[in-house]
Amino acid sequence: MLKTRFALAAAAVTTLAFMTTAVHAADMVTTSATVAPASVKPGGHGTLTITLTFAPGAHCNAHKLPDQNFIPTTFKPGAAAGVKIGAARFPAGVEITTAGMKQVVYDKPTKITVPFTVAKSAKPGSVQVGGKLTYQACNTAMCYPPKDVPVAATVTIK
Length: 158
Prior knowledge:
Mean pLDDT: 86
Radius of gyration: 20 Å
Order of helices and strands: HEEEEEEEEEEEE
Largest sheet: 4 strands, antiparallel
Helix content: 10-25%
CATH architecture: Sandwich
């Protein structure tokens, strides 16, 4: 009986610790997206800008990494009617050493730019331009599971 109570108490503490960690990980990186220009004519071009901001002490792995065992920050374009989304352009990260391992990370506000072209045949209206951003948030003590975040902004086709 005592073993059962101890096991239940240990499970409750473990669950609470996991929940606290999950909430903490969610607050480490904030993402936002904008498009420029806000209105584009058919046949015109624009840029989706994804901005990552970090809580104090937080970082995420950069896009280009020195070690294939780390999980890079990536962007996968989504479908947007009448819009062709190009390849994302990632900034260089900064090199840090954690636990004796060299890493390349983003740890300050970071802008990822994604060019797009509106088809000449596109009809006027509003279109969501975006996709899925994947990153792995870390702090000086640990890294959290990778996170997939939908990012999008609205462009008006004139």
